[in-house]
Design brief:
It is built from 15 helices and 19 strands. It has helices spanning 85-99, 102-118, 138-149, 178-192, 215-228, 240-250, 254-260, 278-286, 295-300, 308-314, 325-328, 333-348, 355-369, 404-410, 437-451, and strands spanning 2-7, 11-13, 21-23, 26-30, 33-38, 47-52, 56-60, 62-64, 121-128, 152-159, 204-207, 231-236, 268-272, 290-293, 317-320, 387-391, 418-421, 424-428, 431-432. An eight-stranded parallel sheet has the order 8-9-10-11-12-13-14-15. The longest helix has 17 residues, at 102-118. The N and C termini lie far apart (58 Å).
Length: 454
Amino acid sequence: MTDLLIRNAALVATVDADRRELAGGWVAITDGLVSGVGASTDPEPVAARLIDADGCLVTPGLINSHHHLFQNLTRAYTPMTSAPLFGWLQALYPLWTAAIDEEAEFLAAWIGLVELALSGCTTSTDHHYLHPPRAGDLLGAEISAAQDLGMRFHPTYGSMSLSVKDGGLPPDDAVRDEDDILAESECHVARHHDRSHGSMVQIALAPCSPFSVSTDLMIRSAELAERLDVRLHTHLAENSEDDEFAIASFGMRPVDYYEHCGWMTDRTWGAHVVMPNPDEVARLGSANVGIAHCPSSNMILSSGIAPVVDMHHAGCHVGIGCDGSSSADSASLWQEARLSMLQGKLKSGASAMTARLALEIATRGGAGCLGRVGELGELSVGAVGDVAVWKMDGPIFAGVLDDPIEGWLRCGPTAAWHTIVAGVPVVENGLPVSPKLEQMLVDHRAAARRFQPS
């Protein structure tokens, strides 16, 4: 007997290797993995629990490939809402560094992951690069939050080692010694990284950016990731300031620097990648580098529109990222997928970016960034039992008769009706399953006041 059967869907969009779309479809989950997928004409297994998806679109759970969860403690903070990237970071670093601790990190991660789950997200990364020595085990705190909620989590042990006095952007008390960073990286991988199929926690290494770590740390991090067989992540080619900094500091453009440091491999994924030229797009694609596309953040910080369609067709694993709440403010994977569709049409032509391609980027593309294609981001036998069920009723979907996938992303805003991780609901009937939400919001508000001077 299967554990859970999601049945009677208007359409199941499997996003599998064959991109099957199954009218009247069903998905069976056993022991946390997909044990069967079928159309209305295929016999259904007997199940211990049923979810009736009548009239709903069923998709793989969405994957968030870039975030800074702690930043929801300074969400839409007024003094910081109109600066471009470098000035924005220099203004916020001191506030974050002074107040961050394990309690704040746990609360920020818990609330941020609930918000993501409400948008149909089942797996999230987190690029946490701020580790003041006095702050405690921040990576462990956010992993505990994900485990409490039942979310699949890919946090990165991020790092900053160049302060203002060294030619970087962060203040002195925000950076760490590079030997300590590498030692801590190895310890966190040993403590938390689960390589098994269907694992709930995996760790990546993530020097923050070319303007906050040294070339030596970039190179040594790549070597360590190779030795430990884990993924690598950083910010890459974010905007014109990033271009200017790389040329002035290294005598080369950001993508050239990325390759110079040994990062041009299929082990890595970069965040934003707004400014690559056509030759760089081709090189990134040839190396199967992953790309975390963050459309809201790229607009809020006036960074530009990334050439997502070109990078996807070049061979990059393009995923979707919400980025930190202080720059994107809303942690909705549905919204980011919709914006990626709209920006793709604007950048590459109306027919070049469709809702199906945006759905693929938000699922299979994210799995590619995390090195888990065939395991995450699709509904196929043996893949993880991570599913989003989307109601397609009410005024916002009136008239959507021909194509539920286009309707799902073109209409809205919308949120997931059910979000299921490893066969277990995290969101049910549009609401978080956890009974802790109201108290967590109270505690989060108290923590946020410590980050925002009145």
